[in-house]
Task: structure prediction
Amino acid sequence: MDIILPNHTPQQLEETFEAKYLYDHSLFSLMAEPTDLPWLLVIPKQDLTDIDYVEKLYGAIHQLIHTLQEAGFGPHFNLAKLGNQNPHLHIHIIFRTQEDEAWPNPVWCHEGLKPSEEMPLTFKNVLKSYFK
Result:
């Protein structure tokens, strides 16, 4: 588990994670699950053994979350590093509400989340200035 993906091209990321590529950051690539649920994937560019990198990475993740919360996402979010189904290193950010279709259960146990091509586009538009 925790295989570092050396090639962060949009095509390679989309094939590996079955999600929509959004942006590149010096520390990670950002993707969105094509669901109605606001769900992001952060794909680190290094393993998590270097404490300096981890501090910078999680600092950047929390800045990203804050930016999205200011844009109306949240206020509750789940932040998790799982590797049960895809061994490539990735971190989930999922904004949850009591009205979402999987509430109160974990989203990865919920079969058939409502697909959406709009949510990745919404994230891309909201984060455009953040990734300039």
In short: The longest helix spans residues 51-70. The mean pLDDT is 94.
